[in-house]
Amino acid sequence: MSISNEDKEYLMSIGYLEKDLKQIAYAAKANVTKYECEGKRIAKSTAIELLGRKKWLSGLARSAFHWSAVREAEDGRCIHFDSSKIWEEK
Fold first, then answer.
1. Pairing, β 40-42 against β 34-37
2. Source organism's superkingdom (predicted)?
3. How many domains is the chain partitioned into structurally?
């Protein structure tokens, strides 16, 4: 699953630049960003389900440039994003 044009518009509305979108899209690819909840690995689809698309995009974008991020779901659980693989592959 990649980021859609609607996702790109949202990311730019919260301050990301068009030139940032390539790295964020790369982080969204399968096997690049890892997700954890309560110490257990979860699927990207589960992270999106727990957080909602916009909060997931916010966490993904932050981790794409800062290695990692955390976002809190409505139920109080924290979702950890780990995009460190971006730098391992370069």
1. antiparallel
2. Bacteria
3. 1
